[in-house]
Amino acid sequence: MTLIAKIENKTAVVGIIGLGYVGLPLALEFAKKGFQVIGFDLDERKSKFISEGKSYIKHIASERISEVVSHGKFSATTDFTQLPNADAIIICVPTPLDEHREPDMSFIVNSAKTVAQYFRKGQLVVLESSTYPGTTEEILLPLLENSQADKEKLVVGEDFYLAFSPEREDPNNPDYSTATIPKVIGGMTPKCLTVTQALYNQVIVKTVAVSSPKAAEATKLLENIYRSINIALVNELKLVFDRMGIDVWEVIEAAKTKPFGFHAFYPGPGLGGHCIPIDPFYLTWKAREFDISTKFIELAGEINTFMPYYVVDKTADALNRQKKSLNGSKVLILGASYKKDIDDMRESPSLKLIEILRERGSLVDYNDAYVPKLPKTRKYDYNMESVPLTKENIRKYDVLLLSTDHSNYDYKLIADNAQLIVDTRNAFGKNGIANEKIVKA
């Protein structure tokens, strides 16, 4: 039976490497549609949670996992020797930057080497991790072609299938989910594209074919560079308008009444999440190979990287007006995740704010119901726990710095009891609260 036939009658087994914010929801969609799904991850904790029908990501309900696990459609393992059991292997691993802002490709390379170690003819491999144009062709293709060490070189499009299809997750977006966001696909050959589309068409509302993996890789970078540059623009305008005594949020609300030619972006304390702060620099790095300087991308990166420092400076100014120093002041950061109503800490600007405030002598705590304890990240290991947001606790702090505008915050309670508030998201203004204690930053 051909792979396409197995996909269409749902007897194909889907293997997903990486069960994080991208891999887990994708696995659940395939399992919900009746496919047998094997999840692979190095984290034994994730395998244990899934086998017990529990979720380890707050916005993904445990019921979604327990339903497909109880029906025998989804299992998770750390045993990669099971890879030959999968007909389609989808790689969803991180692609961070190193300390020099250059791509750390180790997760992709190690995953590709592991797949190649257990590779068999007839399998489909799809890379979903955000990366620079050329990754699929330059890293995965040679490893898979030469995976049968004692045999002839495998032929892509005949002996196996290879494609790139960028993830487009937006955690906890109420309007779009994994299944309802169109899927861009670039296959190494026309047959690779056909097979990959057949797979994703089973679970995604629409697939969008492009000419090559490079085009698909570039598509993901364009999407995130577009956001990065436009966020940098409004962040810079915030600095300018603040000096002029103009409220940037008021200006944005007025500008977005224009029914064409304008799309609203909003300033903040810095960029967060796995994609927007990182992906643009993948293209910057790759462009050097072609003797091209990506000025827009690098300038946007400079502006967005500066924002946490600006927020701390505004906090210091606000304290000075109360005859207090940032050095020695007690600061409570509201919100630790990188965006509202999720527990995703990846590249959260709150972590950078803690670092800068501590360097300047502040005594820093945080509150976030979604993040009861700050996890260790590649750069930070704070060992901090969320402080309960009670009237008594609020009154103890010299300033409350709002970094993430969670919906579950009682903004009136905070405003009534805080000595001083620095609001980086206009959260209090959006909730109709304005007084002399609230400083926008």
What does this structure look like?
- The protein folds into 2 domains: 3-210, NAD(P)-binding Rossmann-like Domain (Rossmann fold, 3-Layer(aba) Sandwich), CATH 3.40.50; 226-440, Rossmann fold (3-Layer(aba) Sandwich).
- 39% of the residues lie in helices and 12% in strands.
- It is an alpha/beta fold and 441 residues long.
- The chain contains 15 helices and 13 strands.
- The chain has an 8-stranded mixed β-sheet, with helices on both faces.
- What's the shape? elongated
Structural class: alpha/beta
Low-confidence stretches: none
Overall domain count: 2
CATH superfamily (homologous) name of the largest domain: NAD(P)-binding Rossmann-like Domain
Mean pLDDT over all positions? 95
- The level of helicity is 25-40%
Most strands sheet? 8 strands, mixed
Which H/E pattern describes the elements?
A: HEHEHHEEHEHEEHEHHHHEHEHEHEHE
CATH architecture annotation name of the largest domain: 3-Layer(aba) Sandwich
CATH topology of the largest domain: Rossmann fold
User: Using DSSP, what is the number of strands?
Assistant: 13
Count every helix, treating DSSP H or I runs of 4 or more residues as helices: 15
Q: Mind telling me the C-alpha Rg?
A: 24 Å
Described by its quaternary structure, the protein is single chain
Strand content: 5-15%
Write out the strand line-up for the largest beta sheet, numbering strands in chain order. 3-2-1-4-5-6-7-8
Top CATH class of the largest domain = Alpha Beta
Instruction: For the record, give the distance between the C-alpha atoms at the N and C termini, rounded to a whole number.
Output: 61 Å
